[in-house]
Amino acid sequence: MHLAQELVAYVDRLATLPDVYLKVRSALDDPDVSIAEVADVIATDPSLTAALLRLANSAFYGYARKIESIQRAVSLIGLEQVHDLVLATSVTAMFSGIRPQRMDMARFWRDSVRRGMLAREVARTLRGVSPERLFVSGLLADAGHLVMYVAVPDLMALVLDTPPGDGDTLPDVERRIIGCDFAEVGAALTAKWQLPVTFGVLIGAQLQPETAGDNAPAAALLNLVSAVATQAGDGSDYEYPLHHRSEALAGITRDEVEAVLPSVEAQMEMMMAVLANA
């Protein structure tokens, strides 16, 4: 049986985020940092610069005028949001070179983008929830599976080949066979990356959102969005386990989340293209 932290330690390729992200995060940790200083750090990486400008000029933000400089983009988008978008583009680049056996990476990435975009759009309708933070949390919500497929491929194959019992969910089977579930592993990965604590709390509590304390509404939203996005995807052997209190904790119904899905699907190709070139 394995602990989530053990699985993360096995995966060297996912152990460290790119230097440019670490430099951006270090700059943002300085309370006196200026927009120009953050823009200068981002500008040292041409691919990141291009990716952020594509995002800033996409329908994702919908600004009326074209944004032609990183400093202008940072000014308009905001420092915390820029951090989260730099993180999203950095993670995209890391995931692109990984091809674990028995994992459909094209489907994994499409499902991740759908979940992130849906989380962001729903979060925009609620108070006290950061849309960009939910976007990245949705993008990373299933990253634990990526670690598990790379670290223990034989055990994951056994999970996939095990017929679900009465009332079984995918995390139930994972805990029984591997010793931990994908949410635990995803949270351990964010800790390994030393991301802001909120990401680990949301991803780790997505299956039991009431355990997230003050972040319970956001964790419940992630649970609700993940259930809707999984159902809208290309299919899975298991249904994503919707928690019975997610609607009440998040303050929104599943029907209301599903109503947002068509607008997300309409923008999927745009976002896939933007992130693919990150």
Automatic annotation (TrEMBL):
The record's PROSITE patterns line, in alphabetical order, gives: HDOD
Which SUPFAM superfamilies does the protein's record reference? Answer: HD-domain/PDEase-like
Domain HDOD, by residue range, is 14-209
A Pfam family of this chain: HDOD
- The coiled-coil segments of this chain are none
Q: What is this protein called?
A: HD-like signal output (HDOD) protein
- Native source species: Niveibacterium umoris
